[in-house]
């Protein structure tokens, strides 16, 4: 009879370590003596490496035995002994009984036994050691902010509703990170942060090359459509119109309106919002109000 699946030598050595742990516990309980230190020796570096590993990381067979060994020997110390200094190897290789009866090495161990290094020499690169680890399936979750923007824009055509939804989303994220207890309607600061996020996302999608050029070189390329507007990035990385108006006494938002694409859903939503709050005013007045409130396109 032969086993269906071959068993590795380290797998056979591990139950021997468990047997040693069980026998040691029984002998010490029977002696009822105060023992200062207990050293358990084995010549299997792989078994020692498993014993030094958290059981939940290992496969069932090894995990169960390692858990038992760790529980039985938590107050003891495991150590490595070479085959040359291991008395148990006499029986493993087979010897005559007469030879064993008078063998000092069998009963007392090697002359250098007491001077052996008791530190465990882990062997954690051996394929037999690594093969007993549970396989880990890594899952990589990628969250794209552009996908968030697309999803939110599809919900509503109302700019203020879009701002409110994003404000609440960012509040939830902040709660998860900092355990914030803020509740109620979005604050002014939360709404402003949501507006900045919306504008930045729209600009990155539409004027991405220009923004990259400004970040890298401080100006747009000569053939850029934005060149005539002398664009620049403000402290919040929002793209604004530059030019000679910077020397005027006009308010900052009037001198440097935020750049938005003419044909974009968010731009349409902003125009519709100001058109509504100005009671459907004419195009000239509406354009002036929109520019005064930051936006230019």
Automatic annotation (TrEMBL):
Give a Pfam family name: Peptidase_A17
- Organism domain of life: Eukaryota
Protein name (record): Uncharacterized protein
Annotated source species = Araneus ventricosus (Orbweaver spider)
